[in-house]
Design goal:
By secondary structure, this protein is of the alpha/beta class. Helices cover about 35% and strands about 15% of the residues. Helix 1 links the parallel strand 1 and strand 2.
Length: about 280
């Protein structure tokens, strides 16, 4: 089913408190939001307040992104990995309590993670078991090492696992692969953003050179029924909002959050205006 609900990531690069970000997202016309699901993080209130704030501004929670800073430890022996598993299991349980239907999960971090191994796989399957208990779906994202996603999905079996298709990662990391097509029956979340194939830029769609006709067709042909969600980020400011790149390098130079979100909303409308839907 082609779901035209406009959805937007709760973090889009501007150093604003969550209350202000979600208000601006709603005012721009978006109807759903992707939240950050972590024990603690900058510019983020506790988890119950995140969900309450989304509801306050009329935003459905499309999915949430599970924290991933220490995810490589899951593939390594030792206490660090065990502790992190327990932390993630707690966050998955909270997602069930607060009605978050899907959590996006990273299998690795960095371009040279530890090798796929039975210890790491067993730990991730403990997360899957926690998701089964909580009634939450885990959507594993394509990242800098796409082979890990293929390895994991070939080995893991559960009604509570799927794939988060990230269009920007596909375009930048492995354009020769078609992640959405390869995992068409298992797509449970999407991150849509653009780049020029040379960096993970998280540009607004149509501001890079992604082949959006192909992406749209693959999504429509897949089993995905959720919102077409933007995971864009104005990546060119520091924590105080100061521009890090020059006007020539920055397509959003000097653009305030309202103008940025208005541009994003127009891009989303263009994205779903597909004649052969």
């Amino acid at each position: 089913m082609f779901n035209k609900t406009p959805a937007m990531a709760g973090w889009f690069g501007y150093p604003l408190e969550l209350e202000d970000r979600l208000r601006l997202i709603s005012e721009a016309g978006f109807k759903a939001v992707l939240l950050w699901w972590a024990v603690e993080s900058a510019f983020e209130p506790p988890i119950p307040q995140k969900v309450e704030t989304a509801a306050k501004h009329g935003l459905a929670v499309e999915n949430a992104h599970l924290q991933f800073a220490k995810v490589n430890s899951l593939w390594e022996p030792g206490f660090a990995g065990e502790h992190y598993v327990s932390e993630l299991i707690g966050l998955i349980a909270e997602a069930g309590v607060y009605g978050v239907p899907t959590l996006v999960v990273h299998l690795t971090r960095t371009s040279a993670p530890p090798a796929f191994n039975s210890l790491g796989f067993s730990r991730f399957m403990r997360l899957v078991e926690a998701a089964e208990r909580a009634g939450v779906t885990l959507a594993f994202e394509n990242l800098k090492v796409p082979e890990r996603l293929y390895e994991f999905m070939a080995a893991a079996k559960s009604d509570r696992i799927g794939v988060c298709f990230d269009s920007g990662h596909n375009h930048y990391v492995c354009p020769e692969r078609r992640i959405c097509r390869d995992f068409a029956p298992f797509i449970r979340a999407v991150h849509l953003h653009d780049n020029f194939g040379n960096a993970d830029s998280h540009f607004i769609p149509f501001d890079g050179n992604e082949d959006w006709d192909t992406v749209r067709r693959e999504l429509i042909d897949s089993a995905y029924a959720g919102a077409w969600s933007l995971e864009i980020e104005h990546p060119l400011t520091d924590q105080f909002g100061k521009a890090l790149l020059s006007e020539k390098e920055d397509p959003y130079f000097g653009m305030g959050p309202e103008e940025y979100l208005a541009r994003a909303f127009e891009a989303h409308k263009r994205l779903i205006a597909y004649e052969n839907e």
